[in-house]
## 1
Amino acid sequence: MPELPEVETIVRDLARLLPGAEIQGVEVVHADLVQGEEPAGFAAGLRGARVREVTRRAKNILLHLDRGLLVVNLGMTGRLLVRSPGDDAPTHLGVRLRLADGRELDYHDVRRFGCLQRYTADEWERRDEALGVEPLSDAFTAEWLLGAAKKSRVAVKTWLMDQRRVVGVGNIYASEALFRARVDPRRPASSLKKKEAARLVEATREVLREAIDFRGTTFLDYRDASGERGEFAGRLRVYDRAGEPCRTCGRPLERIVQGGRSTFFCARCQR
DNA sequence: AACGCGCCCTGTCCGC
DNA sequence: TGCGGACAGGGCGCGT
């Protein structure tokens, strides 16, 4: 999916476009995308609601309504698009919210790994508590990382992607952050020294910030709220570059599989 | 309790 | 050209 930078890009767009808009009609095309209740209840709960603000938590898009929240997770291939009359009709439409001003907020998702769910403020608070630290917040420090990883023998790359610990870092940015930090992705999380933890924290923040500046990475499917691609793909240093030369040392980059996901790294630069 | 794996689903690409 | 297998920004639930 969209990882933190892609979700943040969408959220910033929606925060500009949606506040004040009223949801007039709800069309659930794929019922399996709606979590927590039946489509009829979901539609009834949203009809007539007004969007107050749009924020991000982890890889979730939060639409704060005048009654409760609508939380959207894009999974691997989800898109949340603001469409005006006359815009191209979407393929793989999953859920359509018709706004009172004539626009539509359309959720599409080829693989349908994403989901939409309504929450009350209290329900969301409990869900929120189960999510880990925001990597762009002040709470994400080398000291915190050392303490949190102390007892974890899992590979640091897998550790970094676990949303109960650190949120927002997915398969692309985990490889990128570890490369920038010069840390071997196979190392047990508990084996990191203080300096390495500090480098990893800084590298993670840096790559996420840069990717936000470039409006995210379009690898295959990602699009922003207007349907545009992100521009960070060309800046990736290791992801999807197996066999190509390391931009630092020239050695061919490796691809391995960790937890069923591809990891890309330089066996010389990352120790 | 922590960890690894399989699964959800569709589309694309590659090798035979 | 056709077909099977691998793979694709995620996350959950299961077993051990």
## 2
Amino acid sequence: MPDWRSVLREKGYRLTPQRELILGAVEELGHATPDEVLAHVQERASTINPSTVYRTLEVLEELGLIRHAHLSDRAPTYHSVTDHEHFHLVCRRCRKVTSVDVEDARGFMESLTTTHAFNPDVGHLTVFGTCMECEEKT
Amino acid sequence: MPDWRSVLREKGYRLTPQRELILGAVEELGHATPDEVLAHVQERASTINPSTVYRTLEVLEELGLIRHAHLSDRAPTYHSVTDHEHFHLVCRRCRKVTSVDVEDARGFMESLTTTHAFNPDVGHLTVFGTCMECEEKT
DNA sequence: CTACGTGCAAAAGCTTTGCATGCGT
DNA sequence: ACGCATGCAAAGCTTTTGCACGTAG
């Protein structure tokens, strides 16, 4: 797990308090929209601006420190990559998000490679559906 | 494959030229954003309004006549359901979209059901990645 | 010191909503 | 004739952009 400071420096990016706060927010929040990240960092530094959040999330993702997925039909959510690489299950009814180890998708991913000449990005994958709890409540 | 007229009528929706045109546009275009649908229908009926397109797509999806998927980080795209049910592979570099029969994902989907108590909606699934053509151009 | 990063404000999408008119039933 | 559907216009959100200042290196 590479140190975020070195990663930024190596690519010629500067170390700023905003970048540290935003990366910290993403790690703390788990899965957060830009908006939620903004709200979180503003608790500590109220003058931080939305545009800084968007710009910083973009940089951090480019550097591979965070990733985003689409857990709703609307905003993207960002999450840390320091944890295991994972993909997501999202229940449409209760909105619950489950993180699943990429290992559980390996067979499927490999079949896409061999039969469709496609190299899938499993870390970005989101599967929508219904969790059994909700299913039973029908 | 149910007739769209009957489907609308059975649920108490009215048959309008706009609805017919919009459904037709989705079927012709394959995978289209609301914007593309609008442009297409306006070729025939220039007064059709964006809000009608949004409202109609929502109705048609609710009735199961069309579905949407997220083929880019931005706009949703709608497609007909009269074809085979399918999911999508999207190449991030060349933006190519491949439709894949759901059968190819069955094993994976079943494993999610059994090991994660989750009932996946395979028709909404989109897998991002890189196609081999682009991969080789590196 | 240099120029990258930030804050601010305005603009740019995209989508939704309220309302009066029109049209399908 | 009744009331849903549409067109229009305006508002709402989220995200992007231009610019001048501040600050990391």
